[in-house]
Amino acid sequence: MGEEKIAIIGGTGDLGFGLALRWAHAGVPVLVGSRDQNKAREAAQRISDTVMKFAPSDAAHISVSGLGNAEAAAQASLLVLAVPISAQVDILKSIRGSLRNSVLVDATVPLAAALGGKPTRLLKLWQGSAAAQTRELVPATIPVLSAFHNVSAMVLQDLAATPDCDVLVCGDDESAKQILFRFVRLIPGLRPLDAGPLEMSSIVEGLTPLLISVNRRYRVHHSGIRITGLEGKT
Questions:
Q1: What is the pTM of this model?
Q2: Per the structure, how many domains does the chain have?
Q3: Which residue intervals of 55-173 are DSSP H helices?
Q4: What is the CATH number of the domain that holds 83?
Q5: Helix/strand/coil for 166
Q6: Which residue, of 125, 136, 154, 171, has the fewest CB within 10 Å?
């Protein structure tokens, strides 16, 4: 991966922390971004400690830093936005001036729970999806993808567990998708799939409350999505 760095905006949250942990374990330089730099540094330290405890021999390959959101965004070649829908717009406005040549991956799901509603209900956005809202708020030169909506954060945070989930990637930039695919494949158990243009993100985002409902009914925390019939195609 050379000098490529991944920044996780919202890296102190459940999904962001899990992704940062997995990529740090894979040897990728990770920047944990937060509006509170102290929280970002604490999360980065926890990630380093967790990886070193799980795999002491990998200690020399761990590179995790905690930064403010704008500073993390400015250094990243791949930027993952993993924040609640209630914070999405403000955070994007605060970092868009720092975006350089990165690929931006939006993992935001417009769950009503972010505004005090039910976690199994989606908010209706004028743009049609959280990813489309991101597309409107960042420079046109920045490729925007959506992904990671349906991956269990709890499984990602347990390095002894192997995820069993496809990562459905939506976007209009094919080269950006291939960059993201390389990073997804660094996490054992995850398979990246091209789910079509960015407009398909409204459907993919809608699978998250469905999985929350399944988790509740079956009293689990790790249900995911697998697409069948693709043997030999990925």
A1: 0.95
A2: 1
A3: 69-75, 85-95, 130-137, 153-156
A4: 3.40.50.720
A5: strand
A6: 136
